Amino acid sequence: MYGFWSYFLFITRTGMPITRVKKESIVGELQDKIGKSKAVLFARFHGLSVAKVTGLRRLFRAENADYTVAKKTLIRVAFGESGKDLAMDLPGEVAVISGYGDELSIFRVASTFAKKEKGAFEIVGGFFEGQFVDEKIAKALGAIPGREVLYAQLMSVILGNTRKFVFVLDQIAKKSRN
């Protein structure tokens, strides 16, 4: 009989609506995260296991970002009070990912994870450099390589052209000696 009552109490506790005070604290937390963040990403996460969400949170923490789940109405209120207007309706269960370091890192991590978890995790949109970006642009931002990779690519282009220039000068010098 004890098992039934504990189950009944669990159902009644979890089925209760969130109080106004709790809603205000959630909106305040979201506003703080939005205000501090350099970029914000929205992702639909339906069907992910707890272990995968925990791993994803760990990946975002490593990139100096937060993964937050809240009700869509509270997300909309927090963005409205922060002066950012959501230009779309958020579909399904939505997570807000706030990045505080490299602006593109959250888009890269989310894109990589979305490729592994097709259907269970999808990028919906976000804010980049203060502008709302839709799903297509958010996915394109995730395809941009990191700063170090871009530096390495630039250096290989510069060194490759320099090497070719030195080779041409060497050939001209050999030809003039003969």
What is shown here, in short?
This protein has helices at residues 2-14, 20-36, 50-62, 72-81, 105-116, 135-143, 147-177; strands at residues 39-44, 65-69, 94-99, 122-128, 131-133.
* Count of discrete alpha- or pi-helical segments spanning 4 or more residues: 7
Low-confidence stretches: 1-13
Q: How many structural domains can be distinguished in the coordinates?
A: 2
- Rg (C-alpha, Å): 24 Å
Mean pLDDT: 83
Can you offer a commentary on this structure?
Helices cover 59% and strands 15% of the residues. The protein has helices at residues 2-14, 20-36, 50-62, 72-81, 105-116, 135-143, 147-177, and strands spanning 39-44, 65-69, 94-99, 122-128, 131-133. A hairpin with a 2-residue loop joins β4 (122-128) and β5. The protein is elongated. The N and C termini lie far apart (105 Å). A five-stranded antiparallel beta sheet has the order 2-3-1-4-5, sandwiched between helices.
Record the SSE blueprint.
Elements: H1 2-14, H2 20-36, E1 39-44, H3 50-62, E2 65-69, H4 72-81, E3 94-99, H5 105-116, E4 122-128, E5 131-133, H6 135-143, H7 147-177
Antiparallel strand pairs: 1-3, 1-4, 2-3, 4-5
Helix pairs in contact: 2-4, 5-6
Task: Tag the structure with descriptive keywords.
178 residues, alpha+beta, Alpha-Beta Plaits, 2 domains, five-stranded antiparallel sheet, 5 strands, 15% strand, elongated, disordered N terminus
